[in-house]
Amino acid sequence: MNVDIGNALASVASPGVSRDSLERLDERVADAHERIEAGRANDEHGYAALNLPERTDPDEIRETVAPVADADALLTVGIGGSALGAATITNALAAESDVEAVYLDNVDPAWISTQLGRLPLERTAINVVSRSGTTAETLANFLVVRDAFERAGVDWTERTIVTTGESGPLRDLSDRRDLPSLRVPDGVPGRFSALSAVGMVAAAVCGHDLEALLSGAAAEADSLAGSLFECPAYAYGTTAYALDARGAGTNAMMPYAESLDTYAEWFAQLWAESLGKDGLGQTPVRALGATDQHSQIQLYRAGPRDKLVSFVVPDERDDRSIPATDVDDLAYLGEATLGELLSAEFEATEASLAAAGRPNVRIELERVDEYELGGLLYGMEAACVLAGELYDVNPFNQPAVEWAKRATRGLLGEGTFEEAESVTEKTELRVER
Ligand SMILES: O=P(O)(O)OC[C@H]1O[C@H](O)[C@H](O)[C@@H](O)[C@@H]1O
């Protein structure tokens, strides 16, 4: 990936970052890069994620999924980092696959029943993913899925691949039922695990090029350097950090490709869960071009000066002509293609924000394919780790998510949790029709 941070400079935008400030920040980037490289060299917790391009073994993954290589549908049961990386990859590349990839990453009963009712279970692979093996949503959904397969007379043990940690209930189940399984690599938090088996099992079942994904990521790893002016990932991470420090507390991730819609959701977890600590952090917003030009751009251009817009735009895309029309006002469309229209809309929106002094950054891909996607995933992960160094927070833990988990367990009667008591003590001011 390449980035263009020109529209985030103080000479263009307010808030904006001056070239002098970037030069001063670059000294901190150099230190941060040294810390990152040391963490990678020692395979330290979290930093180990930036070693995945050479650690992940495509052959091992393909061998493990061989029993379900004939699947017409893939049902991934996981949540958070155990689903979004895989979903980003298979949704971005869905046009290249005959396998329908469905993600059960919520416990909405109506939605789960709809998915289980419509899939050909006898030709569906089950990809259950959980690092801990104890996540309530994942285990609940897996129990429901297993039951649905049994009721349909399909042996779920012949359709299931397990990706989990070294120990835990899922590991025990996998061992007990001799299920094909892979390890969530040690030291790699879920939101940083897309380039491990966590994201790559789904990619393999859908027939995508694992080597190309890893090769694109490896090229991004090779670009990591001690200066933001030589490293697109660090340029992005530094600019986002600097804009937040100057008031842009929101970061709208706005890809101009429908196939990258899920990527924006993956980025939201990566950015929020890694940097939202100690009262710090920049709020990620999922947006999509051109759709959100008719939804959110009004706010981005004329609302508070508290947002950075991060565009992701492929240079090449499959295209389709717009038929000629005899409607005078629309005749100009007939000479164009949909791709030309989308590209023109992106350039117009980018310029519109710059003209209003609203900071924005362009993340450029050659196209949306395995190589470029691997580079984008790796690049954003490296940008996030760099930003964590600049914020001086630990980007690899998520302590704040535990409170609600304890409350949930208390509400479901698993034990006494003071958090569950707080639920019953809710302050109410009800307004009823
Ligand atoms: O992979 P698991 O252990 O099931 O965890 C799944 C997800 O839930 C956790 O609560 C964290 O918020 C996420 O970072 C993690 O990816």
TrEMBL record:
Catalytically driven reaction(s): alpha-D-glucose 6-phosphate = beta-D-fructose 6-phosphate
Keywords: Cytoplasm, Gluconeogenesis, Glycolysis, Isomerase
Major subcellular location class: cytoplasm
Molecular function GO terms recorded: carbohydrate derivative binding; glucose-6-phosphate isomerase activity; monosaccharide binding
Active site (record annotation): E273, H294, K405
HAMAP family referenced in this protein's UniProt entry, alphabetically: G6P_isomerase
Main function: Catalyzes the reversible isomerization of glucose-6-phosphate to fructose-6-phosphate.
Family of the protein in this entry: Belongs to the GPI family.
Name of the featured protein: Probable glucose-6-phosphate isomerase
Species this protein is from: Natrarchaeobius chitinivorans
